[in-house]
Amino acid sequence: MPNIDPRTVVLLAGVMSSFMALIMFSLNLRYPPSIKGLGEWGVALLLVAAGSTLAFGLGTLPSFASITLPRIFFPTGLFLGYVGAQRFFGQTPRIWPWVFLIALTVAVQTWFTYGAPDFAARLRLSGVLAVCLFVAFANLVRKQGLTSFARVLTMGVLVSMCGIVAMRLVTALIWPAGTDIYDTSAHHLVYLSALSVFILLLSVSMVLLAAERLHTEMAYLASHDSLTNALTRRQMNEVCSMELERSQRRGHSLALLIMDLDHFKAVNDTHGHQRGDRVLVDFVNRVNDLLRRPDQLARFGGEEFVALLPETTLEEALGVAERIRAACALPSAEPACTVSIGVTTNRMANDSADTLIARADSAMYKAKTKGRNRVETA
Predict the structure, then answer these.
(1) Predicted confidence (pLDDT) per residue in 59-73, tens digit
(2) Beta bridge partners of 339
(3) pLDDT tens figures, 294-349
C-alpha cells in the first residue's frame, strides 16, 4: 500500500470524473427534457474533476488554488449531485440551508489553512460535511424505493462512501492525520483509493438511473396516447385479452364500453384542432374521475375511446356509462360535446377481445342511430 502514489490516485479520480462528466452532459443533451437533474450531475462531476486536478498541483500551485478551491469544489460538487437527484426524483431542492452550511465550513477551513494551519481540522470539517451530504443523498434514494438495480447500486455506493469518510474521521482521532492530502500512511492511502473508486461507481450509478428512467418513459410512451395519456389501442387489446382470460377462468363478469364523441368534426371545423385536442383531454379527465383504479381507458383513434371495467356486471356498467354521459353533458371551458356509448359484457367461454369490441361497437352505433348522447347495449 505505501507504494501507491497518492498524487496519482487523486489525478486518476479527476480524469475519471471528467470523462463521466462528458458522458453526463451528452445524456443531458440527448435525453428528453422530462428527465431532470442530468445537468447538475454533469456539473458535479466536473467540479470533482477540477478539484482533483488543482489538488494534484499541491506544492507547485498557490495554496488558494491547490487547497482552498478544491475544498470549495468537492462539497459543492457533492451538493449538486444531491440537488440533481432531487430534481431527478421530482422534488424541489432546498438550496439555501446547504449553501450556508458549505460556505460556513469553507470559511472555517480557510482559517485552518492560513490563520492557524491544521490539516487534521480541515479533514474533520470536510469529513463531517461529506457525511451529512451522503446521508441526505442516501435517504432521498431510500424514500424512492429500492425497486431496481440502479437504485440499489446508488444506495450501496452512497452508504459505502459515507462509511469510508466516517472511518477516515475515526482513524484521524487514533493516528496522526498527516500534514496534507498526500499523506502516505496506509490508512490514508486506503481512504483516497476507495473514495476515488466509489466516485466512479457513483457516476456509473447515476448513468444507470438515467438509462432506467429513459427506458421507463419510452415504455410509457409506447403504451399511452401522447395527447390524452390514455392507453393506446394496441395496449388496450393486450390488457383486454389478459383481463378477459382471467375473468373467464374465475367465472367473473367483465364490461367493455366504447365511447364516441358526437359531432366532434364540427368542433375541429369551428374551433380549430387545438381546441379539439383540449376537448379530448377534458373528456379523458372527466372519464378517469369516474373510473375505479382497476379500470382501464384507451383511445382507439380520433374521438373514439374504450373503457375496460373488470369485475363489473352489465347493470353496473350501464350505471358507469350513464354517469360518463351525464358528466360530458355538463358545461366546461371547452366546447360542449356529448358522447354516445355502447356497452357489453363477456358472455361465453369463447369470447375474445375482438368479439367484445365488436359487440360494444355495434351498441355504440345503435346509440348514434337513435339520436346520439345516449347509452345502448349489445
Answers:
(1) 899 999 999 999 999
(2) 261
(3) 999 999 988 999 999 999 999 999 999 999 999 988 877 678 789 999 999 998 87
- Grid coordinates given for 217: 418513459
245 flagged as catalytic:
no
Q: How far is CA 370 from CA 265, 362, 376, in A?
A: 19, 12, 9
**DSSP track, 211-263:** HHHHHHHHHHHHHB-TTT-PBPHHHHHHHHHHHHHHHHHHT---EEEEEEETT
The β-bridge partners of 306 are 258, 298
Q: Is 373 left (phi over 0), alpha (psi -120 to 50) or beta?
A: left
| C-alpha span between 130 and 22 (Å, rounded) | 24
Decide the pairing of beta strands 339-345 and 375-377: parallel
Q: Which of the 8 DSSP states describes residue 81?
A: H
Q: What is the pTM of this model?
A: 0.82
Supply φ then ψ for residue 377, to 5 degrees: -120, 165
Q: State the catalytic residue, choosing from 303, 304, 315, 334.
A: 303
